[in-house]
Amino acid sequence: MVQFPYDSKVLAADIKQLADQYHTIKCSSIGYSVLGKPLYELKIGEGLQSIHWNGSFHANEWMTTALLMSVVRSYAKALEEDEYFGSVKARDLYANTTLSLVPMVNPDGVDLFMHGLDASHANHNSLVMMNGANKTFASWKANIRGVDLNNQFPANWEIEKERKPTAPSFRDYPGEQPLTEPEAIAMAELTKRCNFDRVLAFHSQGEVIYWGYQGLEPERSFHMVEAFYKGSGYEPVRTIDSYAGYKDWFIQDYQKEGYTIEVGKGINPLPLSTFPYHYGRVKEICALSLSTPLR
Ligand SMILES: [Zn+2]
């Protein structure tokens, strides 16, 4: 079972072990965080359908990283043993899809959440200020500069700029401009480069799936999200009053399928004891995202 704290070091070791054990997994770095930590991308598959998953845009939603790594391990194992992954033979998924996974978009934030000020040589006074009245970093969502990475994308960013915090903060501050932060830039560049057909951004919490943006989402998003609902019980929600997120920008610029998956119910961070419960649902959603044809 997953170890805690699952910080950026544990992730790096986990990725290395996985890539050593399974030759089907390719690993590279798509850029670096503010503090110079690699932003890892794992790839599996040789197919034409390009599917992307990511986790931990938000620091205190770290469990999404551990969940996605467990899912990918299970997929690689199914490939090796020529088993099913979900309802489809893993080798068929491998032949038909190319999976891209960025398990931890915000490693500096995750490490700050887990280790407090010890995690960073950055200005401790400013981190304490950005953290508001909080005694710990348990509510921290932003990157190490106090920018909310999921408010950084050029999709009605100005609306969030107008109503969100005007200075760096543990959450919600959208930055001075869209795409000022290296982690958000790396995700945008990767997405432009890779021509993804379907993207799943994992957050917590709520057990809901946001699947629309300004009516620009393709019709098949509706059918996909219904299948996710049947597989996981996570309620589809077409739109909310929220902009400048990664999936908002993806739907806006590409008019392809983009989903924000809110894992679990309760208060972030989700308790470690609930991991196995979430794992079953997340795995189901992930398997469906690979096995459901795009057209
Ligand atoms: Zn989130």
Automatic annotation (TrEMBL):
Domain Peptidase M14, residue spans: 4-295
InterPro entries in the cross-refs: ENP1_M14_CPD, Peptidase_M14
A Pfam family matched in the record: Peptidase_M14
The protein's required cofactors: Zn(2+)
CDD domains per record: M14_Endopeptidase_I (cd06229)
SMART domains in alphabetical order: Zn_pept (SM00631)
Keyword annotations from UniProtKB, A to Z: Hydrolase, Metalloprotease, Protease, Zinc
Signal peptide: none
PROSITE patterns (alphabetical): PEPTIDASE_M14
TM annotation in the entry: none
Active-site residues per Swiss-Prot or TrEMBL entry: 262
PANTHER family per UniProt: PROTEASE FAMILY M14 CARBOXYPEPTIDASE A,B, SLL0236 PROTEIN
Family, similarity comment: Belongs to the peptidase M14 family.
Protein name: Peptidase M14 domain-containing protein
Organism field: Pontibacillus salipaludis
